[in-house]
Amino acid sequence: MLSPLDGPRIVHSTAGCQPEKRALQHHHEQWIFINGCVVGHPILRQNIDRLSRLFGRKVTGIHNRTYGTFGDLLDCLLQRCLDYKSAGVRASYRHVKAVLLDSNVKKVVLIGHSQGGIILSLVIDQLFAELPVDCMSKIEIYTFGSAASHFSNPLLSAPTKSNYAKESDGNPNLREEQLPSHVISHIEHYANEYDLVCRWGTLHSTEGDLTNRYAGSVFVRMGATGHMLNQHYLDFMFPIPGETASADTEGFLESVLITDEALAMKRVDAAATAARGLQDGKSGLETSTFWVGQGTLNGQTVKDVSRLWRYQKGQSP
User: Fold this and answer.
1) Between the N and C ends of the chain, which has fewer C-beta atoms within 10 Å?
2) Could you tell me which residues come within 8 angstroms of residue 160 by beta carbon, excluding any fewer than 6 positions away?
């Protein structure tokens, strides 16, 4: 009954194609999008065309086919709770792996929405087990309304006491330039505060459950609800001048960041404790030593910090 909504598994954007000169400039990049639940081929086309117009690049969509509302919810639960590799996960894995192994591709930008976030997290786990660091380091990840329970991003080296410097008050502090680097250098998650999918996805996994590592920065649009990619996320978070109807669309990008320092301390310390525990069986350094960036974001806006925004209109960070 849902077969008319399927279409081909791999779809390429047709709108927003940049001039030939700019296309050559970005020829070494591959942008890949994985959709969420209950999305047919027409909506996938709208999503990738919207992303293409926003970022001035061709976007490839991997169609996570729908089995209806209840079928898709069951699929999400199996993927999230049992790491079930559904047809959508397997297709995404094959395509992303082939792109990463292409020596002509230097950057692979992966974007996931809703269930697409779960699929991305499972694909990344499998790729980490099979591909070398030089391939995986090509990746950048951006999610919207992600339902994933975790995102893995191994350290290239475990944190040690040599990473720490003494502050004037005698307390150790980990400087940003001294941070142990990760394999994937850029991961960002975007969430609406009252999006129900985020409440048990991104937000729960970063606020309520620290046992599953959820790598990356999290940007929350406070007071906002809705789960549709174009309507509730892109139109408000990354508007296209002249296209977006709402007068409030600049609010998110211009809003001043409010950093949850206590939560950040807990998240980073949990990861550091695990990393050092693998080294010597001991707990990580004191929680207060692991918070990075305390006060450094004061006064800055989302537009100042968001890496994804720097790609708009065909630009590059």
Assistant:
1) N
2) none
